[in-house]
């Protein structure tokens, strides 16, 4: 039986090629996702290991990973450690700042989309354990206030060469500086900044730019003498420090920084694996369909094996052996393609600022294991149902000429499908509105249950559509159309199983289109209802910018009022916590309407909270709320007011500008609201203030709304690109089904040709059949996508998605694309059918 299974497989190489290709694609997505995420993790771990000293000294109790901070240590600490720590080979003060953007010669910002723009003081201090970190590789160190060094990738991307003036924008009081490039820094042993940029100045200039001229540092690196461990050195350093400073080993500092960052971007792995799972599910539909057709076509052969003495289990095992071989081949090819796909994903994310092009791909053993488990298990599981049916073929059926594969009861499928849909809807409701742990997983499982349930009942619910398609074809295309419609109706299970693969991809595509459209509509609605003033000044990256911009704009004739907003980030219970800062005098202008408390009590050390968030946190006026980590340690704020939801305020909690400043946050602005006279040309005057600062833009209402919509379009486009793989697999499923259907109907095709059906008519018949399958899948996908979208958006209405928008034009394009997929999918099967020899086709057994 084993030899018979292998011979059967070798005899049907072309028939199994398409299903093998589906396995290759789905395994490649799983492998590519794991390779990329491992590469991402390894790159950041290596990067942080090479950007810390043996021991790092920093302010105690403060958070070292919250971005920009004004907290520093006196330069005297360096001298103290040099004198009191005998095992220190050297002690180096360092200054680190964020928001130092390099602008290229075309006045465009280099980077900025995601990875930070670093600046600081140049230092040649070695990294921990003697590792070679960011080191001068060309030129010389900066000397004096008008010189700078850049990392090599930033210099390449910006087009600057040694000796040229560099255009740099900072978030400090000096918004624009133009130092001369004197050196390039890189990683001689390999590695990059993963898309971040770096500009280094001499110590005095860095103190002037980022510490208001104070003789201080934001970090101190202590390098160990040979033979001294990091822990031993840390203990010595800690003993010499005052109580407000702490010493940590470089290993601990690197692990802390890498863990925090990898936790923050862990959604990328989940995001990619979700789409890999979608591809696997779609491929499973294709494999089930393929093996069902193949087993049906081999029913006489299998029945003859039964007649010759093979047991039902032996016949079942022979089919599973074929599936095992196909799965192994598909998984092996998928592993190789996964490497290529990982490169593609790396290139895709490089467009969004996460540049890992300088990092070698990490190919871990677990990736290979996962690929083979997915490829083999999915194929075996998909082949099990048709293999199980083979055991029910009676030997006497070998004497029949027609296909004798038994089918499950349509009523049983209908019942199971309805139960699956009901169970899925219940799980989705629980995931969306219930208080259950891992609600996202419950929601995902419910969505899958609905999709599988609809697939099970589709042979029943699709009959009216298939009948209507046949009637339409008959009237529009005559006998050829009638034959195409009959072929679709002949085996509705096969037709709907093929359409279901496309249904899944388009359902998710429709869901994302609805979320994207609703997000943009909600932005437009919020801006229209709550836009304050005449112009908004903000960063294109959502990052802080120099407060000097407001000072300069206040000098523009016609500017009557400027309202500042600043944003800060801290930690509470280990999670990110964002809050805003405003001037208490501007609360009325910003439309902050209190439902409890009084604005007169809003002062330094207090906070206003959004009513929904107050209910979630069980806060009332008079309560004290503690933010666990800020640059200067814990921050305790007293709640003095609860306000109505306000889209102009980007965070649910608001404190004062001076509170943020006292807690170590920079005095940079995040948004300015301008009230102006309606003077002709005032917009041009305002634009002139930021003409050389491309990170900052001046927008009216329409421009501000457009800027808020832009990142939504980018995210949706990226998701569509990833979903495209599932649609490709679904299209292959249509090709495969049609090809196998042509093989199955070889004699019928020959008879049609013999009675006068032309090659063009045959081609047209198969194309119409393919279009029916594609349009059916598209309609089911669009309907399910709208249902999923409405449910999801209802859940997200408290997250700012208050407007539910159905992008009908985009959904119409999906249907047009489905017709195009149907036409293209029919090309190869129709070409094969048209080339069949008529006499040989009629004689086919």
Short description:
The chain is an alpha+beta fold and 845 residues long.
Span of the ends, CA to CA: 23 Å
Summed over residues and divided by their number, the pLDDT gives a mean of 83
| Poorly predicted regions | 401-407
**Sheet with the most strands, sense and barrel status:** 10 strands, mixed
Explain what the structure shows.
The chain crosses the membrane at residues 16-36, 271-296, 323-349, 361-385, 414-434, 440-461, 496-515, 715-741, 762-791, 811-830. The protein is an alpha+beta fold. It has 4 domains: 44-264, no CATH class; 419-459; 462-532 and 706-845, no CATH class; 535-699, no CATH class. Helix content is 55%, strand content 15%. The chain has 25 helices and 25 strands. Mean pLDDT is 83; it is low at 401-407.
Secondary-structure topology with pairs:
Elements: H1 2-10, H2 13-49, E1 55-59, E2 73-74, H3 76-84, E3 88-94, E4 96-98, E5 101-103, E6 117-121, E7 135-139, E8 147-151, H4 152-158, E9 167-169, E10 176-177, E11 180-186, E12 197-201, H5 203-210, E13 216-217, E14 219-224, H6 230-239, E15 245-249, H7 250-264, H8 266-297, H9 299-307, H10 312-350, H11 365-390, H12 410-433, H13 439-461, H14 463-490, H15 492-530, E16 535-539, H16 548-553, E17 559-572, E18 575-582, E19 594-597, E20 606-610, H17 611-617, E21 624-627, E22 635-643, E23 653-656, H18 657-662, E24 671-676, H19 682-689, E25 696-699, H20 701-744, H21 746-754, H22 759-795, H23 808-825, H24 827-834, H25 838-843
Parallel strand pairs: 6-12, 8-11, 18-23, 20-22
Antiparallel strand pairs: 1-14, 1-15, 2-13, 3-14, 4-6, 5-9, 7-11, 8-12, 9-10, 16-24, 16-25, 17-18, 17-24, 19-22, 20-23, 21-22
